[in-house]
Amino acid sequence: MASFADNTRIVITGVGLTAPNADNLGDFRKALLEGRSGIEMFETRYLPPVPAGVCRFDKFKHETKKAARRGTRAGSISIYCANEAVLDSGYDLQNSDRSRMGVFIGITEHGNVETENEVHSLAKYNNDVKFWTHHHNPRTVANNPAGEVTLNMKITGPHLCMGAACAAGNLGLIYSAQMLRLGEVDFALGGGVSESIHTFGIFASFKSQNALAHHEDPTKACRPFDRDRNGIVVSEGGCMYTMERLEDAQARGAKIYGEIAGYAYNSDATDFVLPNPQRQAECMNLALKRAGIAPEEVDILNTHGTGTQQGDEHECEAARTVFPNSPRPYINNTKSFIGHCMGAAGALELAGNIPSFQDGLVHPTINLDNIDPDCKLEGLVINKPRAVENVKYIMNNSFGMLGINSVVILKKFED
Amino acid sequence: MTGEGIRQAILEIINEIVPDEDLANVDPKVPFRDQIDLDSMDFLDIVMELRKRYSVEVPEQDYPQLLTLSSTVDYLLPKMESL
Predict the structure, then answer these.
(1) Do B20 and A65 touch (CB under 8 A)?
(2) How many Å apart are CA A222 and CA A31, to the nearest integer?
(3) Class for domain B3-80, per CATH?
(4) Residues A366-382: pLDDT tens digits?
(5) ipTM
(6) How far apart are CA A260 and CA B51, in angstroms?
(7) What residue in A sits closest to B43 (Cα-Cα)?
């Protein structure tokens, strides 16, 4: 029995996404099973070309050109993903009470892109601030991506962006589940987004930290757990879920992707950037406890692993603590295909694994040519998908700077 | 610039701000906002673009002069005819 405040069951009923290698769940899954990377060389200000993940979704499918120009890239990604998720869910948006709907989006950061662009533009005018745009504030407020979704879809219930560094994607799901459980909304759009590749600062900062990946072949630049990994590949992306209480989803005959079995998020309280394996393990254990399951019941562990030296080692150490001497779970990593989609990472990486409930396959970790002995994990699925008998529980890890850890456990739906 | 040149310049700016709109049939005597989806933030974009492209300043007290295409051209003519 779940150790939540009550026994409300929360389910996922729709998925909308854009990733560097796909713009919908079906294509995303196919790319992950076929080992297709979405990483390419990318031009950014002040730096030589860098490996990065770029999304190429149809921006104007759900948004006017005027709205896209006024808003932000993160807003456009959110609008695309939110509309795709609602379409996928079959939810009758037109005839629903939109004051009972909420939009909850995890972000790693927001506003850097717009600020950098404006500073760059202002320099052309001798830094005379009368040329600074009046759109700066509405573009850079922290609720911008979620707010743009409410404007686009005329949703009048609550909206919020959760700033949670690279743990944010899971936070979008967790917060949505909490709001549904509290009865504050009947229908939640939750997930995560990132526009990070459009700021040079994120690349430059990782480079100064000696944590920016480089490789002559961009598709091989992101290589978590590999001996020759050399850092993070920054990507943009987004993934939004429609989430409902089980009885509401069943009442409208919705298809159900999975049930939120457990979740947790906690804080390291130890360092600005270095992870803490003990706290990560505590976070995973708390999620397991809330799901009411033993570690060996987890079928797939989707790792956070970004391809940095210490980060990967620490996560493997945490995983060995939680899952000692067990062939389960099967362990994979989605960043090896799409890079680090920052605020979107947790939500996108979970999405890439959800089809496992149906197809019984575990997508691999690619670019793993020589495993780092410090990253050795029994169940790692390397370079090729693995067929398994039955997938019932998926654990999804996402960790971020300032020591924020988030874990979501999704369960195959059984009535 | 001639009045026609200014008219073209204004329509070009508005087209960039509201690219979804068809500006071919804008009535020069009818307020912009009664014909196209142009709000106060868009209006500030027109002012900003005039500043950036033509170094023309439109003080806030003169904003009502930009009500229609016709009144805008009339207002801008003395400011832009020497350009």
Answers:
(1) yes
(2) 16
(3) mainly alpha
(4) 999 999 999 999 999 99
(5) 0.95
(6) 53
(7) A134
